[in-house]
Design goal:
Immunoglobulin-like; 4 domains; Methylamine Dehydrogenase, Chain H; 1200 residues
Length: 1200
């Protein structure tokens, strides 16, 4: 044998991290929900046994251990689901269900034996004779004659009611010789019969991990066969637009854009993008994944499409191979190659990350990937994901198989393999030697995963509690009600072991509880729907069922080809919990015909028939959407701006960073800079680029100009319009930040630009003291009551020395010249932490302006103003466990009780980093290896044990000396943090922690006491940055808008990109309702940073959202019942007290700077029904009182 060096990188998926392209209520213990049946019980004794040989083995066929598929269906129409297994190196097996979970092997007499490498199995009535047929995909061998797909046509019943089959793939035109993984049948052209899509791979000498100069060109392309209507099929792939390359391991069908036509999602292995083919309704498809998804899994394997959150929209899961335990994570996690990841993006590939992906359908053509929030992101070497309601509670759970016979991703083996391959290139016997080494590798043998759906977009791992503790090398799987008791059983194909048959005991347990407790105890009702389709689609493939009961709904689509290489039962199963009646059951058939059944009782198998369907009448159509609450008006407002900056790669200087600090902007600041009575705004510039001023005209449109033509090296962070020199116009303070330069570099000097009163700004280089910290925010208040505005400037990061705190400043205004008084006014600020946002606010209502500060690795910090000195009173606020990765801070009296509450944007919960007070994320920093640099060691908890975040390669990049300490990956992976970093080693290290990553509402309880509550789950999808607060819907209560995401992450963590912006509707009691994006109309799915409100010429607020390396957007409220009343506020005004329509009092403060790096208009917007207003200045004096708001503004309108 000669070693095929070209193919070597294909064999080792782990090497794509290191050497190739990129990385990156439960049952009791005694009574399990599922019971594993033995082969002695079931009669199912099949084994998919694999034996390496010279012609096919692990080294020359990378999918040697992928395993086989399972298909279930009633082949003899006796009402019992039969089971078919594919075999790779053994024949397929067919087991006839004899009832009571007893099965009989009828493979030989049925005529369904196979002799080649079978993969996927699909049961479909392909000739519409009322009998299910079996289509088998073939792969493995290079001889195309051994790869012909098989079609076993059901010829009816022989003796003992056993089905008989004849192989007729050639006759039907379906003897495809591609390396096929799975076949899915669906009516893509809606001509009434079912067509077939084949997911394929390409066993060639091309390395599928190499970043192509132009992705999309490859011989590895899937196939689409059109049904000709006469029991023959024609390959129409090219003419239908199925032309994109891939390594297809999974395929799912669903109506992704809700246009009534089936679309195709394909999960592709290696560097190849997953594919989303959108049906053009004319017999063709357009590959559109970039239009719908932000990123995908990297080594995408199986997939399923289902509505897991019962909002009526199909969601997508794809599975990958990242383990859930620390040891195996570190044995797979080699060098994260940032440059190659960026190269892949530049050449047109999607961002891909090594973890399961759960794509939540937003209903507007976008998806949010929330696997980490859901808690299902790491399930090891995974194959078959299946959504189904296994506990009959009315929401779909998630089952995932996993395991691999030989774990060649082990980095020690990968390193050895590549070294041997290079030294032995062309040598006879090298492959034999390496194969022997490979065969000694351990497998990844783990239990399969079962997740219970919590109903709040999260899942709980119930694998062991529900009975899935058995370790295995599992691959294909299918669910079906094998014993007809109303719950879903599971059949799993294993490699080198007998299959698993799990009996679901939900019905039995519910019946026992009912007998013990009486009628209705813990009901687990269900409804099962069978389809009698049209003559050309007997099983109703593509039919859609919608259940409505109370205020709930469930949706299912009749596509049984799911998971990995498998087919589930062709009956739709819905758990109903305690529901005793489905109010309406709507059936939509593939051709659009419709029927509705009312008052449907549970606990039955209901057959619906196409012959009872009719054309859908107009009155049955869904109600039209309500008008959106917000409208994008960027172009209308004359705004055209895109943030542009040169990338700086922080990771090359500190490989252990969690994210970059060089792309945190831009921010937005608002003020009337030219004195024309109209508010203008400023957008910060990136390093070397000037910021931009936008001047508002009388027509409400904005014109732009650069702030300055002078060169500036620093990146603009926070900015602030305020009258620095008391000359009656607004000057501009700009914070310099980023991480491009070393600490102390002049690039970090903040800048004050003086206004000539007409909007022309000149840098005053002498106004500020020396500031050499990389900063973040700036906010102003007259803390010392001397009549001018002083400043707090937040220090963001210590470049090259993360996570050491940067210095923050109190700058005292002395006639337009600023003095650093931090040491006397607030000495704790010199090293308070990595500050991101702050507010000057009177949080205890004592008429002295206090300071609240948040930041990364910081608690929400309360600094009380005591006679012009700041005192840290955080410990007395009754808040605990608030250390987080906070980004932003905003305030409003949300519960209308006369004091100010806060909203703080945090990392969110959709991250690999999970934190609590008991199990915090921590960082330790010092020069551990005495190399003259700061080494930052991050830890988090995995399975209850404190572990290092980074792998050996990252750690040795930071500290080369560790190569000697840990000569193998195994040495490093088996050690916990405490074993590597002993107390002696940690002595003198700077430490910080985070316990809370939830974006939160902080309620002011009065007397300096607070209570923190997480905002709704939709606010936790990604880091929240921009925040604005107003009564956007005119109901008299304060609402909020949030934007965020972060693309500054390192490759293993991956982009935080799931957020699409969020409108949270307040109820006046400190509670918030997330409003769906299709109702709100507020859609910001970019790397959003600063957000601010500006008052327009027409007298309404305009929302400005700035995004890193993206276009600025503008939105306006669009569905208010009546216009907002605007009250002009003077620079000296501190707050207002509003008496609302319901008699409650609301306090509203006026801020110079809030949110994230931003400053909103200080206009006082009065909600509808406001009775009276009192405006109080910073000296505590009543400046303005409007005792009858409605009469005053009516008079003003008449006067105009």
């Amino acid at each position: 044998m000669t070693l095929n060096f070209l193919r070597l990188p294909i064999l080792l998926k782990a090497l794509t991290f290191s050497f190739a392209v990129i990385g990156f209520g439960s049952c009791s213990q005694e009574e399990k929900m599922f019971e594993l049946k033995s082969s002695a019980d079931t009669g199912i004794a099949f084994q998919n046994t694999l034996t390496s040989n010279d012609s096919i083995n692990l080294l020359n066929f990378e999918y040697f251990y992928n395993g086989g598929g399972v298909a279930v269906g009633d082949l003899n129409n006796d009402g019992l689901q039969d089971v078919f297994f594919t075999g790779n190196m053994v024949s397929a097996k067919l087991y006839l269900n004899k009832g009571n979970l007893k099965f009989e092997d009828i493979t030989q007499q049925a005529g369904v034996e196979t002799a080649s490498w079978a993969t996927g199995a699909s049961m479909v009535d392909i000739n519409n004779d009322g009998l299910l047929d079996i289509y088998v995909c073939m792969s493995g061998y290079k001889d195309p004659n051994r790869r012909k797909n098989l079609l076993f046509i059901n010829k009816g019943m022989g003796t003992d009611n056993n089905p008989l089959f004849e192989e007729e793939a050639e006759k039907f035109g379906l003897a495809d010789t591609g390396y096929t993984t799975q076949a899915v049948f669906f009516d893509y052209d809606r001509d009434g019969d079912v067509d077939v899509y084949l997911a394929t791979v390409n066993r060639s000498d091309t390395n599928p991990n190499v970043i192509a100069s132009k992705p999309g060109q490859s011989s590895s392309v899937d196939r689409l066969y059109r049904n000709n209507g006469n029991n023959t099929f024609t390959n129409v792939s090219e003419e239908a637009g199925i032309i994109k390359e891939g390594y297809g391991l999974g395929v799912g069908i669903g109506d992704m854009n809700q246009d009534g036509w089936p679309d195709i999602y394909v999960t592709n292995d290696f560097i190849y993008d997953d594919l989303l083919y959108i049906n053009n309704q004319d017999g063709t498809f357009t590959e559109s994944i970039r239009d719908y998804l932000k990123h995908t899994s990297h080594f995408s394997m199986g997939t399923d499409i289902a509505d897991f959150n019962n909002d009526g929209l199909p969601d997508i899961i794809s599975v990958d191979m990242m383990p859930d335990d620390s040891r195996r994570q570190k044995l797979m996690n080699g060098i994260k190659n940032y440059d190659e990841f960026q190269l892949a993006l530049q050449r047109g590939y999607m961002p891909q990350y090594v973890r399961n992906n759960l794509q939540l359908n937003n209903g507007n053509g976008s998806f949010s990937e929330i696997s980490q929030l859901a808690g299902i992101h790491y399930t090891d070497w995974s194959w078959s994901p299946l959504f189904a309601d296994f506990d009959n509670d009315g929401i779909k759970d998630l089952f995932i198989t996993n395991g691999i016979g030989k774990d060649i991703t082990h980095l020690d083996f990968a390193t050895y393999y590549m070294a041997q391959a290079r030294s032995s290139f062309g040598n006879e016997g090298a492959e034999t030697h390496l194969l022997k080494i490979a065969e000694t590798m351990e497998g990844a043998k783990k239990h399969n995963f079962m997740y219970r759906n919590n109903g709040d977009l999260t899942f709980t791992d119930e694998s062991k509690n529900w009975g899935f503790a058995q370790e295995s090398f599992s691959s294909g799987a299918a669910y079906a009600d094998l014993d007809n008791d109303g719950d879903l059983d599971i059949v799993i194909s294993n490699v080198d072991e007998e299959p698993f048959v799990y009996q679901n005991m939900v019905s039995e347990q519910a019946q026992r509880r009912k007998e013990n407790k009486g009628e209705g105890a813990d009901s687990r009702n269900y409804l099962r729907i069978k389809f009698e389709g049209a003559a050309t689609n007997k099983t109703g493939i593509g039919a859609k069922a919608v259940l409505r009961y109370g205020n709930k709904m469930q949706v299912g689509e009749q596509y049984p080809f799911r998971g990995f290489q498998s087919t589930v039962e062709n009956t739709l199963h819905f758990g109903l919990g305690s529901t005793e009646q489905v109010d309406v059951l709507e059936i939509t058939w593939p051709d659009g015909k419709y029927q509705a059944l009312r008052n449907v009782k549970p606990n039955q198998v209901l057959t619906v028939s196409y012959r009872n369907a009719t054309e859908r009448s107009t009155k049955e159509e869904p109600a039209a959407n309500q008008a959106s609450l917000f409208k994008e008006v960027t172009a209308e407002a004359g705004i055209s701006y895109k943030d542009k900056g040169q990338e700086f790669i922080d990771f090359k200087l500190q490989p252990l960073l969690p994210h970059k600090y060089s792309q945190n902007g831009p921010g937005v600041s608002v003020g009337d800079v030219d004195g024309d009575g109209l508010e203008d705004f400023y957008v910060g510039g990136s390093a070397t680029n000037s910021g931009t001023l936008f001047l508002q005209g009388r027509d409400g449109k904005f014109s732009s100009k650069a702030l300055t033509s002078e060169e500036k090296p620093g990146e603009d962070m926070g900015s602030l319009f305020f009258d620095a020199d008391n000359d009656g116009d607004l000057d501009l303070y700009v914070v310099s930040g980023g991480s491009n330069y070393i600490t102390g570099d002049k690039a970090y000097q903040d800048r004050l630009y003086l206004n000539d009163g007409k909007g022309k700004f000149t840098l005053d280089a002498s106004a500020l003291p020396l500031i050499n910290a990389s900063g973040s925010c700036v906010t102003a208040a007259d803390y010392d009551n001397d009549g001018d505005l002083d400043l707090f400037v937040g220090g963001r990061v210590h470049p090259r020395a993360f996570p050491l705190p940067a210095k923050s400043y109190i700058l005292q205004n002395n006639g337009g010249k600023f003095k650093d008084v931090t040491g006397t006014v607030g000495p704790m600020l010199s090293d308070i932490g990595m500050v991101t946002s702050a507010l000057w606010t009177d949080f205890d209502n004592d008429n002295a302006v206090d300071l609240v500060v948040v930041g990364e690795w910081m608690p929400v910090t309360f600094l009380k103003n005591v006679n012009g000195k700041l005192k840290d009173v955080t410990s007395s606020t009754e808040l605990s466990g608030t250390h987080g990765w906070w980004n932003s801070l905003a305030a409003g009296d949300f519960d209308n009780d006369g004091d100010v509450d806060f909203v703080a944007g945090n990392l969110g919960l959709n991250s690999k980093f999970k934190a609590s007070e008991e199990q915090p994320v921590q960082v330790y920093a010092k020069d551990f290896d005495k190399s003259g640099t700061t080494d930052a060691i991050m830890t988090h908890y995995i399975q209850g044990k404190k572990q290092l975040v980074h792998g050996r390669d990252d750690m040795t990049d930071q500290m080369v000396s560790m190569r000697r300490e840990f000569r193998t990956y195994e040495d490093y992976a088996t050690k916990s943090f405490d074993e590597i970093f002993t107390a002696e080693r940690l002595e003198g290290a700077y430490t910080a922690k985070s316990e809370n990553f939830k974006t939160s509402y902080i309620e002011n309880l009065g007397n300096g006491k607070f209570r923190i509550t997480a905002l709704p789950m939709q606010a936790q999808f990604a880091p929240v940055c921009g925040i604005t607060i107003n009564d956007y819907d005119g109901d008299g209560n304060l609402d909020m808008l949030l934007v965020g995401n972060s693309y500054a992450t390192e490759v293993v963590v991956g982009r935080y990109d799931a957020f699409t912006g969020l409108y949270l509707k307040g109820n006046g009691k400190g509670q918030f309702l997330p409003v769906d994006v299709n109702r709100s109309g507020f859609m910001v799915d970019s790397d959003a940073k600063g957000m601010a409100e500006v008052s327009t010429a027409e007298g309404s607020p305009l929302l400005l959202i700035a995004s890193h390396n993206d276009s600025l957007k503008a939105y306006k409220p669009a569905a208010r019942q009546e216009a907002l009343h605007a009250v002009s506020i003077l620079p000296s005004d501190a707050y207002a007290i509003l008496t609302l329509a319901n008699g409650k009092k609301r306090k509203q403060e006026f801020y110079f700077g809030s949110g994230y790096l931003s400053q909103s208009s200080r206009t006082l917007w009065l909600p509808a029904g406001t009775k009276s207003v009192q405006v109080v200045d910073k000296a505590g004096k009543l400046r303005l009182e409007i005792s009858d708001v409605s009469r005053t503004f009516a008079a003003n309108r008449r006067g105009r």
